[in-house]
Each structure stands twice: as structure tokens, then as C-alpha cells.
Amino acid sequence: MNTNGGGASVRRAFKFLLRPTRRQGQALTLMLADHCLLYNAALQERRDAYRHGSKTTVRYGDQSAQLKEIRAVDPDRQGRWSFSSQQATLRRLDRAMQAFFRRVRAGEAPGYPRFKGGGRFDTVDFPRDGDGCRWDSTPTEPVTRVRFQGVGHIRVHRHRPVLGRVKTVSVKREGRRWFVIVSCDDVPVRPLPESGSSIGIDMGVVHFLTTSGGEHVANPRFLARSEDRLAAGQRELARFPRRPRCGRSRRGRVAAARVAAIHRKIRRQRLDHAHKTALNLVRQHDVIAYERLNIAGMTRAPKPRPGLEGDYQPNGAAAKATLNRSILESGWRSFLTILVGKAESAGRRTIEVDARGTSRTCTNCGHVAAENRLTQAEFVCMRCGFTGHADWVAACNIALRAGLALPAAA
Predict the structure, then answer these.
(1) Which of 50, 185, 307, 400 could cross-link to 311 by cystine, CB 3.0-4.6 Å?
(2) Which residues contact 98 (CB under 8 A, 6 or more apart)?
């Protein structure tokens, strides 16, 4: 069981839309391309050193030491950008390599770091405010600006105040839009008035979540709503395949941008729903218990079942693929991360509990059996005859395991 609560201050990130001029937009695009080039060159150096240097290991310190020489040799591209932002790009590669070796040691699928194309490298990080970037922290000014080395001062659509002390700044491209992400330390906690309520929640696919108070939150299924438009866009995109050494044609790039725009809209809808649902829970309850989820294990494809004659037996892969898609579409991990962050900022308490067997355990007598759950929604205890909605029973068990009293409505 893992428990956390609100403190005096927390660390939070604020994301704002940038409004660059045409020339600034071109400079931002060039900055992104040059950092992408640096990332790929550093990755190539590591690959070459491993293949041709008797397994020689190239580390971050070695590549960071070369930056001064690289900037001197190529002042028009690498030399015009912030030194610290280039170090952050090299650290990004180093983290990817460390994760690769960790997966190798754990016996997992290695997933060697890949070279980044222009569409897969969308963020440049500045590790410290004032080093290559400067956030305008004057709250009284009607117009907020952020300065990036080599780009200039860019207007920021600041729709809410930035709290705390600015620690890091990042610039990110999403489609044709640019955003700035400001990470702040010492953001003050703003405790909400006590409600005297505690609750447990169970995540699901039919219902997005069910509370121990008996409330069901509907699953919006944003991806399913956009399936027709997404399928039409993907069919259009399939008409313009990538050409060797040339990439996509102009019409192909337009079709790819349309598909990407649909995916971005789905993502924004999903995040908006997660934020509103989490905020509603945090406002109403002092303590929220939720289940510890191993989403990677839950969405793992079933293993093949070899037959006696060299063929394979049915293993339910098709049905499992449908379930996996529903789980991933729900965005449980993003929602729980948002919930914990909002609870911390509001001085609320969240408790993570082991969810194994919660939907099979009777809250009345404690009897545990797989037969207790007759269907996806129906729970009937085989010992005492207690009945209820299976998701509600699971939410009640989550609350009980966290040491919370069940709401009177239950």
C-alpha cells in the first residue's frame, strides 16, 4: 500500500500556447531540426563505437565534452543555439540508452533507441531558466513573453498565472502550433475545505470509473466516436505511400497532417475528460483510494498455443485485442497521474492499494471466489447470497483495503 498526502509546496508544470511571428516560427523549426540532427549524430556515434570499437562504451560525459568543438566547427547551425539545451538533448539520448540496457538486463523486449525523423522529435528542453531561455515572470504585464536564444522574444498566451519558482522551460511543437512548458518548484498547496468524505474508485472499460458510493462515470470513448473520420483519413493517406529517399509527396504530407490532427483532438478530449473527472473527485472527497494497475501486463497479448499436429490452437487473441484496445483507449494511467497531482495540490490524500481479487471478494462476508462474479456487471456471493454491481463491489473493496469506511450510500 502506498500513501501520499499534501505538503507545503509541490512541483507543477504549466503549458501555454506560443504566438510566434513567421520569422520566429521558422527559427523554432530550425532549432528543432538542429537538435534532432545532434541527437541522431550522437546515437550514430554510440552505434559505431559499439560495432567497431571492441564494444567501447560512449557515455554522456564523452559526448558533452565534444559540444564545444562541434559548435566551433558548425557555428551557423549548432553554434547559434543554447549550449545547455544541447546538453539536455544528449541527456535525453543517454536516458534512452540506459532504459535500453535496463530492459536487456530484465529480459524484456530491448527496443533499441531509434533515429528520430522530423515528425518524431518535437521538444527542446532548457534545464534552467536564464540559461539559453528567459521566462517573463512579471505578472502585472498584460503580455507575457519568453525568450529563446537564437529565436528572440515570443508572445505567450498565458491563460492562468504561473506559481512558484520557474525551474525548467521546454518548447514543443504539436502540428502547426508551438507550446511552452514551464516547470516550477515551490508551488504552494491550496488546501480545499474538508468535506468529511472518503471514497474508493474502480477503473473499468464499460464505465470509466465506479465509486464506492455507487456512482458510475460514463466512458466517453472518444476514439470510437472518431473512428469513421480516422478511417477515412487513413484510407486517403494510404493512397500516398512513402517513396524511397523522397518521403511523401505534397498531397501525402497533407493527408498525414489530417490524420495527425484527428489523433491530437482525441488526445485533447481524453485529457480534458480526465482533468474534469479528477477535479470533481478531489473537490468532493478528502481521501481517495484507487487500485494499483499493471497496465502493461493487462494489455499483453496471449501466448500462442501449439497444437499436436504442428498447428496452433485458438488462444482468444482476437477477443483479448479488443479488450486491450478498450483499456488503452480509456487512458487509466494518465487519469490516475492527474488525480494524484490534483489531490496533492489541494491538500487531499490519495491511497494506492493492491486490486487483486477486489471484484471477486464479497464485501459482506469476505468470501473470495471467481464464481462470485457471474457476468461483467453482476456479482452474487456464493456463500451469503450478497448481490451488487461488480464494479461497485470492487470499489468498496478498494476502500476497505485502504482502511476507509464505506459511504453511507453504499
Answers:
(1) 307
(2) none
Pairwise CA distance, residues 409 & 142, whole Å: 49
Instruction: Please give the model's pTM, rounded to 2 decimal places.
Output: 0.86
Instruction: Report how far residue 30's alpha carbon sits from residue 260's, in angstroms, rounded to the nearest whole number.
Output: 21
> Which residue, 260, 240, 259, is CA-closest to 250?
240
Query: For residue 183, what is its C-alpha cell?
Result: 516547470
d(CA 328, CA 38): 33
Q: What is the mean pLDDT of each run of 10 residues along the chain (410 residues)?
A: 57 95 96 96 91 76 94 92 96 95 90 89 95 81 86 93 93 95 93 93 93 93 94 94 83 93 95 96 95 86 79 81 87 94 93 90 90 88 91 93 71
3-state secondary structure of 286: coil
What domains can you pick out in the chain, each with its CATH number?
3-188 (no CATH), 194-221+273-301+320-401 (3.30.420)
HEC states along the chain? CEEECCCCEEEEEEEEEEECCHHHHHHHHHHHHHHHHHHHHHHHHHHHHHHHCCCCCCCHHHHHHCHHHHHHHCCCCHHHCCHHHHHHHHHHHHHHHHHHHHHHHCCCCCCCCCCCCCCCCCEEEECCCCCCEEECCCCCCCCEEEEECCCEEEEEECCCCCCCEEEEEEEEEECCEEEEEEEEEEEECCCCCCCCCEEEEEECCCEEEEECCCCEEECCCHHHHCHHHHHHHHHHHHCCCCECCCECCHHHHHHHHHHHHHHHHHHHHHHHHHHHHHHHHHHHCCEEEEEECCHHHHCCCCCCEECCCCCEECCCHHHHHHHHHHHHHHCHHHHHHHHHHHHHHCCCEEEEEECCCCCCECCCCCCECHHHECCCCEEECCCCCCEEEHHHHHHHHHHHHCCCCCCCCC
Q: How far, in Å, CA of 132 to CA of 82, rounded?
A: 5
